[in-house]
Amino acid sequence: MTVTAEHALERAQELHRLGVAAGDEGQLARAADLFRQALTALRLDRNGEPLDAPPAAPPAAAPHDRDRDRLAARILTSMALPAYELGRVQAGLDTIEAAERVASRAKFSEVRVLVLVQHGVLLMRAGRPGEALPYLDSAVRLVRFAAPIEQCKIMMNRGDAHHLVGHIRAARADFSRAVELAREHGLVEFEFRNTHNAAYMDYLAGDLPKALQLMPTPAAATSDYARGVVGMDRSKVLLSAGLVTEADEILQQACAALERTDLVQLLAEAELARAETALLADRPALARELSVRAAGRFLRRRNPRWTALAQLVTLQSDAATGLGGVRLVRRAERLAAELDEHGLLDQARLARLIGTELALARPRAGDVVELPRTRRGEPITLRLRVRRVRALLAFGAHDAIRGRREIRTGLDELSDYQAGFGSFDLQTASAAHGVDLASAGVSEALAAGRPTTVLQFLERARAISSRVPSVLPPEDKTTADLLSRLRWLAGTAEEQEAAGRPDEALRRHRTQLEREIQSRSWTLAGPRRVQAVASIQTLQTSLDGGTLLAIFALHGRVHAVVLTDRGCRMQSLADLDHVDVLSRRINADMDALTLTGLPDPLPQSVRQAFVNGVRALDDLLIAPLGLPDTPVVLLPPARLAALPWGHLPAFRGRALTVSPSASTWVAARRRLSPARGRTVAVAGPGLARADGEVTAVAGAWADCQTLTGAAATGRAFLAAMDGAKLVHVAAHGRHQRDSPLFSSIRLADGPVVGYDLDHVRRPPEQVVLSACELGQATVRPGDEALGLTRALLHSGTSTVVAGVAKVSDGGAAALMIDYHRRLSGGASAASALADALTAAPEPVPFVCFGAGW
């Protein structure tokens, strides 16, 4: 070999190495340019043929030509993928065929294995995974000839192909083997990628907690490519759990990462995932915009498989907004056939179900609609859609019994699905999947004039999360340490903010800790069992002469169902928009009531506005019902739960308790015990009234443990709660809307948050939160409310008394002292609060939640 040839070979090798590194970072244009330079250094054209070759056939290859051919085959193999990804689809396929020709000249097994795997990758990118598998199987048979890093890539790519054709077990085996190879050879990045891939297979197999436990976070990725891929897959897991906001946040970050690369295909996939997220968030216009954009990218890349997937999301968006009519039905039928051709059977099934629903809404003479079958193992969202279509078909055939049975079965399936989650966060979030199904049952029963059936379906919908028993997590030192660190960090940050010196680094660290705690909670396995829904007969017996009032919204109207021991009736009440406007006005007036230093006559004007607001709400929702003069269990929609219901004229002085569902109320009432027990009163820092209030509360009870000053730490508070009969907290409270389980009670060493409650093994029977806002909740899709009060009820506490807005120090202290005096005298929680509210000189926004009587 001449010196010139040696130098050319070394130069080409270095350019190839740089090109591979650029490709791994997603910089495909740079990679393609480096590969072209490498071929030029070898004096080869883009087909791997010599630039100066004579017209006649070349002589037998010399030794240095074998080295050149070996390197040329590797360069062409590497070059094929960037060409494809940059939109030159045919050029990519031509290049890999050229690589095969060059590799075959001297039968380079170590190169041929790479050519085979790259050919398989290109076919996968083209949406043809079934055709890719034979190439990848051949590569695996030659895997011993590949370097360790290439062996990892081979197993990873075959795992991808198995995944795309639905061979989940085989895919997980390939990804697990890739993890073993990466660990054996110290390939950290490939260990990261394949650990992620194996965890994603756990998700596809139906084990979401395990997937979230094993799946790395995008923040742990070392490249924009990895951040994009991990973000996309993690978002799918979160969406399956109903965590729409969290999924979209990760997808926005994934899109931003992929936009910094040349990976147009993956960017389009991320945009499509965002479109699916927008659909779950009830934003069909945004879903349409994103899916159309993604479809355009796929179409330009001649990828019919992914184009069809994008068109399916566009179809869903148009159906949700009522666009298209009969044309949309035909579009659904055509798209279903196309998806079938690509082997996307679940997606084809969804397209047909959408077409069926549209056809039922606009029936045409002579149309015959096939009854879809239920299938084991299909995704929960698809299964619930099947149940809904079967129910609608039954209702259309005037078979109400069969239709209602389909809806009940579907909601039971959703509860079983939720029972796989130990995290209350995931349980409430996944209720969103049942909204349309429950709505179909309520709509039919309402139209049929059957109030007991309406109440039964409302109860099944609202009791979805509460049917899953709470799970006591195992001892987890890491989570305990994270919560302790969060308490210290949040306390320090609040002190600095109060001093006018906010620290942005502390805020970011706090957010990071919260996300880590939340992610760890998602990995908790569920009990795999659900509790029965309370029957109408059980409810009537439990009411014991009282009244159950369920208020619900449907198709823009607010309705009510009233259940007593004399029967069940229902009534349409008002337009939902009107009620929403009035509710927001009342909430604003409640907060304004706490303002101090307002000049006359503003305080009196605010008070009068509040009184007028609650009177108007009463006129709309309660007065028309003519309720009997008995204690009331109120089941409002989540969006109306945090209102000062006790101040409505119809409820003044009446024992009233607000519950997420009737089944929750029945279970909580059964846990109430007449026996006396230990009382705990806690005073938080920075609240002038706290110590005096705690002293007065302690005076109302014979056995009361108090925690004040420096002794009122988070750890002491949680220990005192365990096994107590009654816990009273006078402290600053904060409802965190974007992460409701981080709503907090401020104590001496920082805040106690909702996640801390998971570690109280024997929850107190009653908790009184003499604090601002902690009766509020964040309303999620599915009409599920999540906040500190809801978390306490789910953990096993029967009764929670909490403020649903800001509270004035003086008003809260006086009310609470009066409340405990009445409670210790033998009154029920709901009666004691009702009488204390009536006696108070000013409105104080406290509500009794759970089983107040």
Query: Assembly type of the shown chains?
Result: single chain
What are the low-pLDDT stretches, counting only 5+ consecutive residues below 50?
54-64
Number of helices in the DSSP assignment: 33
The proportion of residues in beta strands is 5-15%
How many E-type strands? Answer: 16
Helical/strand content category: alpha/beta
What Rg do the Cα atoms give?
32 Å
State the shape: globular
Mean pLDDT: 89
Would you mind describing this structure in some detail?
This protein has 853 residues and is of the alpha/beta class. The protein is 58% helix and 9% strand. It has a six-stranded mixed β-sheet, with helices on both faces. It has a five-stranded mixed β-sheet with strand order 3-2-1-4-5. A three-stranded antiparallel β-sheet has the order 9-10-11.
Please provide a brief summary of the model.
This protein is of the alpha/beta class and 853 residues long. Helices cover 58% and strands 9% of the residues.
